[in-house]
């Protein structure tokens, strides 16, 4: 698996921001109201992925530290460390990559909405509430992208680690 290219996320967000700005500019009066809670699921997912990244990082660090111990007493304590399932890490890496793209898409859409409603705050009554929602959307989406990229980086196997070598008796 290759890491998510940051440039692709930026291009995706910028393109969708332009498209959303054009669409909102043309049909703003016909859109349903933008309630403040619309970006909340993105924020919840960002918090969940950040907590998952923190937990996984701590568990992997403890596992690597336990493997590096050499004395028999240390090895007995190392056996108490709960191992991390490799498939869990692979699934989290896929989740992180998908979430990074989803966050970039929504960041672009919310930025496009914000680009239209922000300047309209003094002229349109509904633009004030929509601006708050769009700002929350941009912040939540950016937080989701950041948490996803952090989770993806935690899921990477360090180069030259013992994890790269096959287990004894396993042929490659």
Describe it for me?
Helix content is 69%, strand content 0%. It is mainly alpha-helical. The protein has one domain. It is elongated, with a radius of gyration of 22 Å.
Briefly characterize the structure.
With 172 residues, this protein is mainly α. It is built from 5 helices and no strands.
Helix-strand blueprint:
Elements: H1 6-27, H2 40-68, H3 72-78, H4 86-117, H5 127-155
Proportion of residues in helical segments: 55-70%
What is the H/E order? HHHHH
Backbone structural class: mainly alpha
Radius of gyration: 22 Å
Q: Note the gap between the termini.
A: 18 Å
How large a portion of the residues is in β-strands, by DSSP E? under 5%
Shape: elongated
Number of strands: 0
Q: On the 0-100 scale, what is the average pLDDT?
A: 88
Provide the low-confidence segments as ranges. Answer: 166-172
Largest sheet, in brief, is:
none
Structurally, how many domains make up the residues? 1
Number of helices: 5
Structure characteristics:
172 residues, mainly alpha, 5 helices, 0% strand
């Amino acid at each position: 698996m290759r890491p998510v290219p940051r440039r692709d996320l930026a291009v995706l967000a910028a393109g969708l921001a332009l498209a959303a700005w054009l669409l909102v500019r043309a049909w703003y009066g016909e859109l349903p109201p933008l309630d403040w809670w619309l970006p909340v699921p993105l924020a919840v997912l960002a918090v969940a992925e950040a907590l998952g990244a923190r937990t996984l990082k701590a568990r992997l660090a403890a596992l690597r530290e336990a493997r590096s111990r050499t004395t028999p007493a240390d090895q007995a304590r190392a056996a108490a460390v709960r191992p991390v399932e490799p498939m869990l890490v692979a699934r989290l890496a896929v989740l992180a990559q998908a979430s990074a793209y989803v966050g970039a898409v929504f960041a672009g859409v919310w930025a496009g909405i914000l680009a239209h409603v922000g300047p309209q705050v003094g002229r349109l009554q509904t633009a004030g509430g929509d601006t708050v929602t769009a700002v929350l959307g941009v912040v939540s989406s950016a937080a989701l992208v950041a948490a996803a990229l952090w989770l993806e980086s935690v899921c990477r196997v360090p180069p030259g680690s013992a994890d790269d070598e096959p287990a004894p008796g396993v042929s490659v």
